Model the fold of this input.
Amino acid sequence: MAKILGGLTTSHIPLIGKAIAQDLRNEPYWQPFFKGFPAAHEWLRKVKPDVAVVVYNDHGLNFFLDKMPTFAIGAAAEYRNADEGWGIPTLPPFRGEPDLSWHIIESVVAEEFDPVTCQEMLVDHGFTLPMKLFWPGDEPWPVRVVPVSVNTVQHPLPTPARCLKFGQAIGRAIASYPEDLRVVVIGTGGLSHQLDGTRAGFINKEFDLMCMDKIVAEPQELARYSTLDLVRLAGAQGVELVNWLVARGALTGSVGKVHSNYHIPISNTATGLLVLENRG
Done:
Protein backbone atom coordinates (compact mmCIF):
# COMPACT_ATOMS: atom_id res chain seq x y z
CA MET A 1 0.00 0.00 0.00
CA ALA A 2 1.05 3.61 -0.48
CA LYS A 3 2.60 5.28 2.55
CA ILE A 4 2.17 8.96 3.44
CA LEU A 5 5.53 10.04 4.83
CA GLY A 6 4.57 13.53 5.90
CA GLY A 7 3.88 17.02 4.70
CA LEU A 8 5.71 20.21 3.86
CA THR A 9 4.36 23.74 3.65
CA THR A 10 5.97 26.83 2.19
CA SER A 11 5.19 30.20 0.68
CA HIS A 12 5.27 30.61 -3.10
CA ILE A 13 5.95 34.30 -3.67
CA PRO A 14 6.88 35.01 -7.33
CA LEU A 15 9.95 37.04 -6.32
CA ILE A 16 11.49 33.82 -4.97
CA GLY A 17 11.84 32.67 -8.58
CA LYS A 18 13.94 35.71 -9.41
CA ALA A 19 16.12 35.13 -6.34
CA ILE A 20 16.71 31.53 -7.40
CA ALA A 21 17.44 32.49 -11.02
CA GLN A 22 19.90 35.22 -10.01
CA ASP A 23 21.46 33.13 -7.20
CA LEU A 24 20.66 35.64 -4.46
CA ARG A 25 20.36 33.04 -1.69
CA ASN A 26 23.22 34.51 0.35
CA GLU A 27 22.19 38.13 -0.02
CA PRO A 28 21.24 39.65 3.39
CA TYR A 29 17.66 40.21 2.22
CA TRP A 30 17.20 36.56 1.19
CA GLN A 31 19.41 34.62 3.58
CA PRO A 32 16.90 34.36 6.48
CA PHE A 33 14.40 32.83 4.08
CA PHE A 34 16.64 30.34 2.29
CA LYS A 35 18.45 29.22 5.47
CA GLY A 36 15.25 27.46 6.53
CA PHE A 37 15.39 24.91 3.73
CA PRO A 38 18.48 22.72 4.34
CA ALA A 39 16.64 20.91 7.16
CA ALA A 40 13.79 20.17 4.74
CA HIS A 41 16.28 18.92 2.15
CA GLU A 42 17.85 16.63 4.73
CA TRP A 43 14.47 15.19 5.73
CA LEU A 44 13.53 14.57 2.10
CA ARG A 45 16.83 12.78 1.48
CA LYS A 46 16.11 10.60 4.50
CA VAL A 47 12.53 9.62 3.65
CA LYS A 48 13.05 9.35 -0.15
CA PRO A 49 9.54 10.04 -1.51
CA ASP A 50 8.44 8.70 -4.88
CA VAL A 51 5.52 11.11 -5.35
CA ALA A 52 4.64 14.63 -4.20
CA VAL A 53 0.98 15.64 -4.03
CA VAL A 54 1.19 19.44 -4.35
CA VAL A 55 -1.70 21.59 -3.12
CA TYR A 56 -1.57 25.12 -4.51
CA ASN A 57 -3.73 27.88 -6.01
CA ASP A 58 -3.59 28.76 -9.68
CA HIS A 59 -2.88 32.42 -10.49
CA GLY A 60 -4.40 32.62 -13.96
CA LEU A 61 -2.10 30.31 -15.93
CA ASN A 62 -4.35 27.24 -16.10
CA PHE A 63 -7.65 28.74 -14.84
CA PHE A 64 -9.06 32.26 -15.00
CA LEU A 65 -11.98 34.12 -13.45
CA ASP A 66 -14.43 32.94 -16.11
CA LYS A 67 -13.73 29.29 -15.22
CA MET A 68 -12.41 28.84 -11.68
CA PRO A 69 -13.02 25.39 -10.16
CA THR A 70 -13.23 25.08 -6.39
CA PHE A 71 -10.97 22.03 -6.52
CA ALA A 72 -9.08 20.58 -9.49
CA ILE A 73 -6.81 17.51 -9.65
CA GLY A 74 -4.28 16.79 -12.37
CA ALA A 75 -4.41 13.41 -14.08
CA ALA A 76 -1.73 13.93 -16.72
CA ALA A 77 1.49 12.11 -17.46
CA GLU A 78 3.36 15.42 -17.63
CA TYR A 79 2.93 19.00 -16.41
CA ARG A 80 4.60 22.06 -17.87
CA ASN A 81 4.84 25.64 -16.66
CA ALA A 82 5.19 28.96 -18.46
CA ASP A 83 6.58 32.40 -17.65
CA GLU A 84 3.72 34.40 -16.13
CA GLY A 85 5.49 37.71 -16.58
CA TRP A 86 7.36 37.73 -13.25
CA GLY A 87 10.69 36.61 -14.64
CA ILE A 88 10.24 33.08 -13.30
CA PRO A 89 12.49 30.63 -15.14
CA THR A 90 10.67 27.98 -17.12
CA LEU A 91 11.54 24.64 -15.56
CA PRO A 92 11.79 21.14 -17.03
CA PRO A 93 8.46 19.26 -17.23
CA PHE A 94 7.18 17.49 -14.13
CA ARG A 95 6.38 13.80 -14.46
CA GLY A 96 2.89 12.84 -13.37
CA GLU A 97 1.57 9.73 -11.63
CA PRO A 98 -1.73 9.27 -13.51
CA ASP A 99 -2.79 6.02 -11.86
CA LEU A 100 -2.55 7.57 -8.40
CA SER A 101 -4.26 10.72 -9.69
CA TRP A 102 -7.24 8.73 -10.93
CA HIS A 103 -7.40 6.75 -7.71
CA ILE A 104 -7.53 9.99 -5.70
CA ILE A 105 -10.15 11.49 -8.03
CA GLU A 106 -12.38 8.43 -7.87
CA SER A 107 -11.99 8.18 -4.10
CA VAL A 108 -12.83 11.82 -3.32
CA VAL A 109 -15.80 11.76 -5.70
CA ALA A 110 -17.06 8.68 -3.81
CA GLU A 111 -16.84 10.85 -0.68
CA GLU A 112 -19.04 13.50 -2.36
CA PHE A 113 -16.35 15.97 -3.41
CA ASP A 114 -16.54 17.14 -7.02
CA PRO A 115 -13.10 18.11 -8.35
CA VAL A 116 -12.46 19.12 -11.93
CA THR A 117 -10.35 16.41 -13.57
CA CYS A 118 -7.49 17.80 -15.66
CA GLN A 119 -5.95 15.44 -18.20
CA GLU A 120 -3.98 18.44 -19.48
CA MET A 121 -2.76 21.01 -16.95
CA LEU A 122 -0.31 23.89 -16.79
CA VAL A 123 1.24 24.67 -13.40
CA ASP A 124 2.31 28.13 -12.28
CA HIS A 125 4.63 29.58 -9.63
CA GLY A 126 2.34 28.38 -6.84
CA PHE A 127 3.45 24.88 -7.83
CA THR A 128 6.87 25.31 -9.40
CA LEU A 129 8.58 27.46 -6.78
CA PRO A 130 7.90 25.08 -3.86
CA MET A 131 9.19 22.22 -6.00
CA LYS A 132 12.38 24.17 -6.73
CA LEU A 133 12.75 25.14 -3.06
CA PHE A 134 12.46 21.56 -1.84
CA TRP A 135 14.50 19.98 -4.65
CA PRO A 136 16.87 22.83 -5.64
CA GLY A 137 19.49 20.93 -7.62
CA ASP A 138 17.60 17.90 -8.81
CA GLU A 139 16.69 17.95 -12.48
CA PRO A 140 15.16 15.87 -13.85
CA TRP A 141 12.84 15.92 -10.86
CA PRO A 142 13.39 13.03 -8.43
CA VAL A 143 9.67 12.70 -7.66
CA ARG A 144 6.53 12.34 -9.72
CA VAL A 145 3.69 14.73 -8.96
CA VAL A 146 -0.05 15.03 -8.49
CA PRO A 147 -1.16 18.71 -8.66
CA VAL A 148 -4.21 19.70 -6.59
CA SER A 149 -5.49 23.22 -7.24
CA VAL A 150 -7.72 25.07 -4.74
CA ASN A 151 -9.63 28.26 -5.53
CA THR A 152 -8.39 31.13 -3.37
CA VAL A 153 -9.11 33.81 -5.97
CA GLN A 154 -12.75 33.97 -7.06
CA HIS A 155 -15.43 34.17 -4.39
CA PRO A 156 -17.18 32.14 -3.10
CA LEU A 157 -14.14 30.32 -1.76
CA PRO A 158 -14.13 26.91 -0.09
CA THR A 159 -14.18 27.24 3.69
CA PRO A 160 -11.22 26.18 5.83
CA ALA A 161 -13.39 23.37 7.25
CA ARG A 162 -14.22 22.15 3.76
CA CYS A 163 -10.56 22.25 2.78
CA LEU A 164 -9.49 20.27 5.84
CA LYS A 165 -12.13 17.62 5.03
CA PHE A 166 -11.01 17.56 1.40
CA GLY A 167 -7.46 16.92 2.55
CA GLN A 168 -8.64 14.12 4.82
CA ALA A 169 -10.40 12.50 1.86
CA ILE A 170 -7.19 12.77 -0.19
CA GLY A 171 -5.25 11.18 2.66
CA ARG A 172 -7.64 8.25 2.84
CA ALA A 173 -7.37 7.86 -0.93
CA ILE A 174 -3.57 7.79 -0.87
CA ALA A 175 -3.47 5.36 2.06
CA SER A 176 -5.77 2.97 0.18
CA TYR A 177 -3.75 3.01 -3.05
CA PRO A 178 -2.63 -0.60 -3.61
CA GLU A 179 0.94 0.10 -4.78
CA ASP A 180 4.07 0.64 -2.74
CA LEU A 181 4.58 4.36 -3.19
CA ARG A 182 6.18 6.76 -0.72
CA VAL A 183 4.21 9.99 -0.78
CA VAL A 184 4.70 13.49 0.61
CA VAL A 185 1.99 16.16 0.55
CA ILE A 186 2.97 19.79 0.00
CA GLY A 187 0.81 22.79 0.86
CA THR A 188 1.84 26.10 -0.69
CA GLY A 189 1.00 29.79 -0.27
CA GLY A 190 0.76 32.50 2.35
CA LEU A 191 1.21 33.34 5.04
CA SER A 192 -0.45 36.69 5.83
CA HIS A 193 -0.31 39.21 3.02
CA GLN A 194 -2.39 41.62 0.99
CA LEU A 195 -1.26 42.83 -2.40
CA ASP A 196 -3.60 45.74 -3.03
CA GLY A 197 -6.19 48.07 -1.57
CA THR A 198 -5.96 50.19 1.56
CA ARG A 199 -4.35 47.31 3.50
CA ALA A 200 -1.65 46.55 0.92
CA GLY A 201 1.38 45.23 2.76
CA PHE A 202 -0.69 43.94 5.69
CA ILE A 203 1.09 41.26 7.76
CA ASN A 204 -0.19 39.65 10.98
CA LYS A 205 2.77 37.92 12.63
CA GLU A 206 0.82 36.86 15.72
CA PHE A 207 -1.85 35.13 13.64
CA ASP A 208 0.75 33.50 11.37
CA LEU A 209 2.66 32.00 14.28
CA MET A 210 -0.56 30.77 15.85
CA CYS A 211 -1.50 29.05 12.58
CA MET A 212 1.93 27.43 12.31
CA ASP A 213 1.54 26.12 15.85
CA LYS A 214 -2.06 24.89 15.60
CA ILE A 215 -1.73 23.22 12.22
CA VAL A 216 0.62 20.61 13.67
CA ALA A 217 -1.67 18.96 16.22
CA GLU A 218 -4.90 20.99 16.20
CA PRO A 219 -5.79 21.82 12.58
CA GLN A 220 -9.48 21.70 13.50
CA GLU A 221 -8.93 24.93 15.43
CA LEU A 222 -8.04 26.67 12.17
CA ALA A 223 -11.00 25.04 10.42
CA ARG A 224 -13.32 27.05 12.67
CA TYR A 225 -12.48 30.27 10.86
CA SER A 226 -14.55 31.45 7.92
CA THR A 227 -12.94 32.64 4.69
CA LEU A 228 -13.91 36.20 5.63
CA ASP A 229 -12.17 35.69 8.99
CA LEU A 230 -9.01 34.76 7.10
CA VAL A 231 -9.26 37.86 4.91
CA ARG A 232 -9.67 40.02 8.00
CA LEU A 233 -6.90 38.36 10.01
CA ALA A 234 -4.42 37.41 7.27
CA GLY A 235 -5.16 39.75 4.37
CA ALA A 236 -6.94 39.20 1.08
CA GLN A 237 -4.31 36.74 -0.15
CA GLY A 238 -3.78 35.21 3.30
CA VAL A 239 -6.65 32.87 2.49
CA GLU A 240 -3.99 30.69 0.83
CA LEU A 241 -3.74 29.14 4.30
CA VAL A 242 -6.48 26.77 3.10
CA ASN A 243 -3.87 25.04 0.90
CA TRP A 244 -1.94 24.23 4.07
CA LEU A 245 -5.13 22.83 5.62
CA VAL A 246 -5.71 20.52 2.65
CA ALA A 247 -2.13 19.24 2.94
CA ARG A 248 -2.39 18.84 6.72
CA GLY A 249 -5.70 17.01 6.40
CA ALA A 250 -4.04 14.44 4.14
CA LEU A 251 -1.72 13.30 6.95
CA THR A 252 -3.43 10.23 8.32
CA GLY A 253 -1.51 9.48 11.52
CA SER A 254 -0.22 11.32 14.55
CA VAL A 255 1.80 14.24 13.26
CA GLY A 256 5.06 15.60 14.62
CA LYS A 257 6.95 18.73 13.65
CA VAL A 258 10.44 18.13 12.27
CA HIS A 259 11.33 21.72 11.39
CA SER A 260 9.89 25.21 10.96
CA ASN A 261 11.00 28.64 9.81
CA TYR A 262 9.20 31.99 9.72
CA HIS A 263 10.47 35.22 8.18
CA ILE A 264 9.11 38.62 7.19
CA PRO A 265 9.10 40.24 4.79
CA ILE A 266 9.75 38.71 1.41
CA SER A 267 8.21 41.22 -0.95
CA ASN A 268 5.22 42.18 1.23
CA THR A 269 4.47 38.67 2.46
CA ALA A 270 5.12 36.73 5.63
CA THR A 271 6.83 33.45 4.71
CA GLY A 272 6.42 30.19 6.56
CA LEU A 273 8.00 26.75 6.26
CA LEU A 274 6.98 23.55 8.03
CA VAL A 275 8.20 19.96 7.79
CA LEU A 276 5.69 17.57 9.35
CA GLU A 277 6.16 13.82 9.79
CA ASN A 278 3.35 11.30 9.63
CA ARG A 279 4.07 9.04 12.61
CA GLY A 280 1.24 6.57 12.67
In short: The chain has one domain: 3-278. The radius of gyration is 17 Å.
